[in-house]
Design brief:
alpha+beta; 3-stranded mixed sheet; 14 helices; 9 strands; 60% helix; 12% strand; elongated; membrane; transmembrane helix; transmembrane
Length: 383
């Protein structure tokens, strides 16, 4: 058990406990063996001194006065009389210690129990973390934190508040999820939240700004959300639709170009068939002429396959770019994606047509080679 665990257990046994000069004092109506064990552990650790000539047998079951118990007051472990006292120490206004206890509400952070002050304190610390994330400069010093925001002008917010200023901050997590988002509009969201913050607090005295913010947090949420909706309205359906139409036209032309680039070469396929069929001589048999024509057909097929492979790779690259456009539409304009995605469906259809066309050409060229091989073998008497 830590020193704080022991002191908390002892404090909860005391009648009218109080702290003076970082020392705990109080009275025990009836000393129990369990409480005596705690006192002995504190005594062994040097945090408390049992009375001289202490008689355990006589003390048990009797009233007992506890004086000068050293309480932990470290950045990571703190014992406080009141919430105001707690907030005045270390960096507790903006950074919670690992564990702490407050006599005022008998709250110990290690317990599973709920406490109104503790819940509100946790929410305020979470709000400060949110503000730190959108601030341009964070300046912690001597238990206080100054946040600097650069919007249209420099705006400074000093984190200073007391227990009386703690408020329940409803929908704080929702606000974070709406404005701290890693997407294409992250900086715009942060800028909108900073602008709403400055509009509300710029006329409030510097030392009172954060306290005022806690009291008008609901107004901050409303302004930030309203301003964001106005920003989003700038990305109207028509603008996004025009962008999709431009992309569709551009990639339709790219897909058409893939097949158009080899159309002239395709004219050579029937020409090759006529050339081989007309020039091979059945009477010549196993002649150099027939061999030359057949090798020419092989070379022609090899070149055409290389050309088709390049076009197939080009077609795949274009299809990958189209997939990225569709994913971008889904991420950046999720609300419009359902209505606009069918426009990209025409590109998918065009891609399949071009892919099938290339496959047909491959089959046609393979057929030409097989026909030439058949004539060559027949004329040379191989079968």
């Amino acid at each position: 058990m830590t020193q704080l665990d022991l002191v908390v257990r002892l404090c909860r046994e005391l009648t009218a406990p109080f702290v003076e000069d970082a020392l705990l004092h109080g009275y025990i109506d009836s000393l129990t063996a369990e409480t005596l064990t705690v006192l002995r552990k504190l005594d062994a650790d040097g945090h408390y001194m049992l009375p001289t000539a202490f008689d355990e047998q006589r003390a048990l079951g009797q009233p007992f006065k506890v004086r000068d118990v050293a309480i932990p007051r470290l950045p990571e472990m703190f014992f406080a009389s009141t919430w105001d006292e707690f907030l005045q120490h270390h960096n507790f206004r903006f950074a919670k210690p690992r564990s702490y206890f407050v006599i005022e509400t008998n709250f110990y952070s290690a317990d599973a129990t709920q406490d109104q002050f503790a819940d509100r304190y946790s929410q305020v610390v979470d709000l400060i973390k949110l503000l730190e994330e959108i601030a341009d400069v964070s300046q912690p010093s001597a238990g206080r934190l100054a946040l600097v925001f650069m919007v249209k002008e420099k705006f400074e917010l000093t984190i200073d508040y007391g227990a009386a200023d703690l408020r329940a901050l409803s929908e704080l997590n929702s606000l974070r999820n709406e404005f701290i988002v890693d997407d294409a509009y992250t900086e715009q969201r942060k800028s909108i939240l900073k602008s709403a913050l400055m509009e509300m607090l710029k006329n409030v005295p510097g030392d009172e700004r954060f306290k005022h913010l806690l009291s008008v947090f609901d107004e901050l949420k409303r302004r930030a959300r309203d301003n964001y909706q106005l920003y989003v309205a700038g990305f109207s359906f028509e603008k996004v639709r025009e962008e999709v139409q431009e992309n569709r036209l551009e990639y339709t032309l790219k897909l058409n170009k893939v097949f158009a680039e080899i159309q002239n070469q395709l004219l050579a396929v029937p020409a090759a068939l006529l050339l081989v069929g007309s020039q091979m001589d059945e009477k010549a048999g196993d002649s150099l002429k027939n061999w030359a024509l057949w090798f020419g057909a092989l070379i022609f097929t090899g070149f055409m396959n290389m050309l088709l492979r390049n076009q197939r790779h080009s077609l795949k690259a274009i299809n990958d770019e189209i997939s990225e456009l569709k994913e971008k539409l889904t991420v950046e304009h999720a609300a419009l994606a359902t209505k606009l995605m069918p426009m990209y469906g025409e590109l998918d259809k065009r891609y399949k047509q071009q892919k099938n066309a290339l496959l047909f050409v491959e089959v046609l060229i393979a057929g030409v080679l097989l026909f030439c091989t058949f004539l060559f073998g027949r004329y040379c008497k191989f079968w």
